[in-house]
Amino acid sequence: MYCLQWLIPVLLIPKPVNPALLYNHVVFIILYLFSFFIERKPCTICSLVFIFAVVLICSSGYGNCLFWNFDEDTNQCSSPLNKDSLGLISEQTDLAF
User: Fold this and answer.
1) pTM above 0.85, yes or no
2) How far is CA 50 from its chain centroid?
3) Strand, helix or coil for residue 26
């Protein structure tokens, strides 16, 4: 269980409030986890406990997951790669000045 001391703080990193930074947050979390599993090679029990904790957190509430955001307007999970969740203006919108 020594390996969990490097994995548990990942669950405590808050998601950014600004949707434009959500993509950077997701990339950071994925790269950290990937490099951790490659470098440290945690035991099977620690890996299963961490994966179970991530699944439990992601399924417990709409806005709790580390990897995607819940859009309250459409009641759907939005990927951080989606243009609308990044706050970018789509080409089809007409701007009136």
Assistant:
1) no
2) 14
3) helix
